[in-house]
């Protein structure tokens, strides 16, 4: 058992070193990107303007714009059954039922944040990842397709007569969207991704959800799929296709493959975290005050990385890792509002954003509790709070402790919260001497090196 723990700690130490190297490389790349961005500002402006195509028409008519999406998931659903419309009396009832179906389909799309493009006769077209880009759109669209299919089956089971049937085609890839309108914005998408999804719908069997191999690779961890065959695609060879039969038993309520369970939800949110992280880091990049040399984007990324490393080593499950990473992402976001009470403002932002991403009230409360545990002096009450406290002060036991500490000094100095560098070193010596890491993992990784930093700081202090 002891040998396994030692091997795990060695692996974590190696990951920490690799993470530090990646952070340094990322900083170099970030500087290069800023330089290139400044050089190409005028070119970007020209290119963005060239994407706008004004339509001729009455004054005040909305302009048409073109947007490109690198990853969208297009769904075509053919609603068969119009041939049933023969008897006039029965036709009215059938059309009422069709209205009910279309209303429900619209509700399902809204539930999964999928954009309805249009209805073309008896074909229903929609796309995930539009207009707001997100990484989970393949999963969202497949979930919507399953729910649409299930609703149609259950509806006709209740009504006693089966009029309608679905055949669905789904493909993931880049699309181009023509955006028009002012009050009501519409998106008309085109490209190979649209054409392939439409063709797949046309060759699929009744009641089957047919997906391309591109979509399959992005959703296969969640859903039971079986190989369906190949479809020739011009200039691209044969495209492999799969049929979605339902949610995997381990991720569905009762193992029936219809409704997702809590494990599905957690696994989904771990993927979705990428979208939340992009949103919050962008907010920090734009809104953090310029004097935050320590509490900057790099620090937030460091803490997100560290809570995951320590969390896995401490044996947390997927949901625990999710809550920790979410808390770490938000823990300093309150600096965009106020410096001294930033922990509280971080929880306010978490309560504002997280409901949009499906976090439950209980999960949000847990995240906020973890965030507040970072307020100094740390007094963590559970393993989650202990982990984020250790991750937040991870630099105390790193080899770069003194240069990192100096960025915090510079940050406080500009706000006139600290005196001389010598005063700072004295304060740091007192703090680090009295500090102890809370988790076994952090103690094993950082405690020895922290003692070395204490000796280094002592040498920097001179008596007045």
Concise summary:
The chain is of the alpha+beta class. It has 15 helices and 9 strands. It folds into 2 domains: 209 residues, Hypothetical protein af1432 (Orthogonal Bundle); 195 residues, Alpha-Beta Plaits, CATH 3.30.70.1230.
Report on this model:
- It is a single chain.
- The longest helix has 38 residues, at 2-39.
- The chain is 55% helix and 17% strand.
- Helix 8 packs antiparallel against helix 9 (318-330), helix 10 packs antiparallel against helix 11 and helix 14 (421-434) packs antiparallel against helix 15 (440-460).
- Strands 1, 2, 3, 4, 5, 6, 7, 8 and 9 form a nine-stranded mixed β-sheet that branches.
- The protein has 464 residues and is α+β, with helices and mostly antiparallel strands.
- A hairpin with a 2-residue loop joins strand 3 and strand 4 (123-128).
- The chain has two domains: 15-27 and 265-460, Hypothetical protein af1432, CATH 1.10.3210.10; 66-260, Alpha-Beta Plaits, CATH 3.30.70.
- The model is unreliable at 33-62 (pLDDT under 50).
């Amino acid at each position: 058992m002891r040998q396994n723990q030692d091997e795990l700690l060695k692996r974590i130490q190696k990951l920490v070193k690799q993470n530090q190297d990646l952070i340094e490389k990322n900083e170099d790349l970030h500087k290069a990107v800023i330089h290139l961005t400044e050089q190409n500002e005028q070119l970007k402006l020209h290119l963005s303007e060239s994407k706008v195509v004004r339509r001729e028409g009455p004054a005040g008519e909305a302009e048409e714009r073109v947007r490109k999406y690198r990853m969208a998931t297009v769904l075509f659903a053919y609603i068969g059954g119009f041939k049933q419309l023969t008897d006039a009396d029965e036709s009215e009832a059938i059309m009422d039922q069709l209205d009910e179906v279309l209303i429900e389909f619209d509700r399902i799309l809204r539930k999964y944040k999928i954009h309805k493009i249009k209805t073309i006769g008896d074909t229903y077209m929609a796309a995930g990842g539009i207009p707001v880009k997100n990484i989970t759109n393949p999963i969202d669209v497949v979930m919507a397709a399953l729910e649409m299919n299930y609703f149609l089956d259950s509806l006709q089971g209740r009504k006693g007569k089966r009029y309608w049937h679905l055949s669905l085609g789904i493909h993931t890839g880049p699309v181009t969207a023509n955006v028009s309108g002012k009050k009501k914005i519409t998106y008309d998408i085109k490209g190979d991704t649209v054409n392939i999804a439409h063709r797949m719908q046309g060759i699929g069997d009744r009641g089957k959800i047919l997906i391309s191999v591109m979509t399959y690779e992005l959703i296969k961890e969640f859903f039971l799929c079986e190989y369906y065959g190949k479809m020739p695609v011009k200039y691209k060879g044969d495209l492999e296709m799969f049929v979605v039969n339902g949610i995997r038993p381990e991720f569905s309520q009762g193992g029936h493959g219809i409704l997702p369970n809590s494990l599905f939800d957690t696994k989904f949110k771990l993927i979705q975290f990428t979208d939340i992280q992009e949103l919050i880091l962008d907010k920090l990049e734009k809104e953090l005050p310029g004097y935050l040399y320590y509490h900057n984007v790099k620090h937030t990324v460091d803490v997100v990385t560290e809570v995951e490393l320590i969390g896995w080593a401490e044996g947390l499950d997927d949901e625990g890792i999710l809550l920790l990473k979410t808390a770490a992402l938000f823990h300093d976001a309150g600096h965009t509002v106020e410096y001294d009470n930033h922990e509280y403002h971080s929880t306010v932002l978490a309560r504002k954003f997280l409901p949009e991403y499906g976090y439950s009230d209980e999960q949000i409360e847990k995240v906020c509790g973890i965030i507040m545990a970072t307020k100094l002096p740390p007094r963590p009450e559970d393993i989650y709070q202990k982990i984020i406290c250790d991750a937040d002060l991870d630099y105390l036991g790193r080899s770069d402790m003194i240069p990192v500490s100096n960025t915090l000094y510079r940050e406080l100095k500009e706000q006139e919260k600290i005196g001389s560098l010598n005063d700072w070193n004295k304060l740091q010596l007192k703090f680090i001497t009295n500090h102890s890491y809370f988790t076994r993992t952090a103690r094993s990784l950082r405690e020895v090196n922290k003692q070395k930093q204490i000796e280094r700081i002592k040498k920097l202090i001179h008596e007045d």
